[in-house]
């Protein structure tokens, strides 16, 4: 039996590759006669770089940049051939900020721009950037500033990290932007289809998750709207209501409008580059999983994207997940044949989410799954 293991990361606990190895070890312990192939997957968030570089001679590099709240952070990024792979979660990620310090009015994407600028100056011209997991809602202004764009008020002063100053925005200047930027190709990966502004926009939908008070949602949304309108007029384009413009707090808008980026589903982009479709066709069974399975998992997340591929090839898809919500049954209606939560004991959240516990629990769940298949096979 050929088993394809395509686990998403369990955020804050284990990476996609680590989860896949644990599941493979569990199947091996079960006595199930199988050949397993592990393929790390991601949807544009945590683990995107690892998934793209897996089984290549690409390199993971480290650089110091400005973090989401202005403090310097060390970030990992990938290099393979002529392409640089970046995760916004590394440069401007929500995991870099203490919960009590989350503040979309202050959080910046400046460090992302610094990293792009540095790589561009090193000769790289093709970028694949995963937009998931950001702490920001600055519509990419920080990134654009680091790349040389200047946003100015009527009296000629520059708007920096204070998003509230956008109410005084009257001029956009690109005289300091390097000509090299026009030579670059940006491919952005995201599982978010939200527009920049409005009731389904970046601020309204994701702002509260990033520390934004409900009473401030409309205020920040209007500020971002002003930036969007002025940018569209200045650039003679309009991506404000384009699906994905609201990804990563509006970074999708900045990439598409200022940097002529192409936006793809994170999983679809990875599936194409890693030929996952053919791997599914060759498998007898596919196992996926993520930290929490719920109704949202059928909306562009890794499990639902894999479900589309497995159904095309008429292959069973099983999900091993950290926990499941009451509405997770909807996943069965969208191609996941069965799912199995791994929590086996009553314990505090820290223990349950720890790396060691997650790996053991994944292995144990996979072993029991293998034993079940073996029992059926032997009847």
TrEMBL record:
InterPro entries with a match to the protein in the record: Glyc_kinase_flavodox-like_fold (IPR018193), Glycerate_kinase (IPR004381), Glycerate_kinase_RE-like (IPR018197), Glycerate_kinase_sf (IPR036129)
Gene Ontology MF, one: glycerate kinase activity
Keywords assigned by UniProt, alphabetized: Kinase, Transferase
Keyword presence, Oxidoreductase: no
UniProt entry tagged with the keyword Kinase: yes
One record GO biological process: organic acid phosphorylation
A Pfam family hit: Gly_kinase
Homology family: Belongs to the glycerate kinase type-1 family.
Protein name: Glycerate kinase
């Amino acid at each position: 039996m050929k088993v394809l293991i395509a686990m998403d990361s369990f955020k804050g606990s284990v990476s996609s590759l680590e989860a896949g190895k644990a599941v493979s070890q569990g199947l091996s312990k079960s006595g199930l006669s199988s050949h397993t192939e592990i393929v790390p997957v991601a949807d544009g968030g945590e683990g995107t770089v690892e998934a793209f570089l897996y089984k290549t001679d690409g390199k993971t590099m480290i650089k110091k940049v400005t973090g989401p709240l202005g403090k310097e952070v060390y970030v990992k990024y990938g290099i393979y051939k002529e392409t640089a792979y970046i995760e916004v979660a590394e440069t401007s990620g929500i995991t870099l900020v203490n919960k009590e310090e989350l503040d979309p009015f202050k959080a910046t994407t400046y460090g992302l721009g610094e990293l792009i600028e540095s790589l561009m100056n090193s000769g790289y011209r093709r970028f694949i950037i995963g937009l998931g997991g950001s702490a920001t809602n600055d519509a990419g202004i920080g990134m654009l500033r680091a790349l040389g764009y200047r946003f100015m008020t009527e009296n000629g002063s520059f708007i920096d990290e204070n998003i509230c100053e956008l109410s005084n925005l009257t001029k956009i200047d690109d005289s300091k932007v390097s000509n090299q930027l026009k030579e670059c190709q940006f491919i952005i990966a995201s599982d978010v289809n939200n527009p920049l502004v409005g009731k389904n926009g970046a601020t309204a939908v994701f702002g509260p998750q990033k520390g934004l008070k409900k009473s401030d949602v409309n205020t920040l949304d209007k500020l971002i709207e002003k930036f969007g309108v002025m940018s569209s007029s200045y650039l003679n384009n309009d991506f404000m209501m384009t699906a994905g413009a609201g990804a990563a707090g509006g970074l999708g808008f900045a990439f598409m409008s200022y940097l002529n980026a192409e936006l793809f589903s994170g999983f679809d982009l990875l599936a194409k580059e890693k030929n996952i479709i053919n791997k599914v066709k060759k498998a007898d069974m596919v196992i996926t999983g993520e930290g929490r399975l719920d109704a949202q998992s059928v909306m562009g997340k890794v499990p639902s994207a894999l479900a589309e591929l497995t159904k095309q090839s008429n292959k069973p898809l099983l999900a091993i997940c950290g926990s499941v919500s009451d509405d997770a049954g909807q996943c069965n209606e969208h191609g996941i044949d069965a799912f199995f939560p791994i929590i086996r004991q009553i314990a505090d959240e820290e223990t349950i989410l720890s790396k060691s516990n997650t790996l053991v629990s994944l292995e144990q769940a996979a072993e029991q799954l293998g034993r079940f298949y073996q029992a059926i096979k032997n009847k």
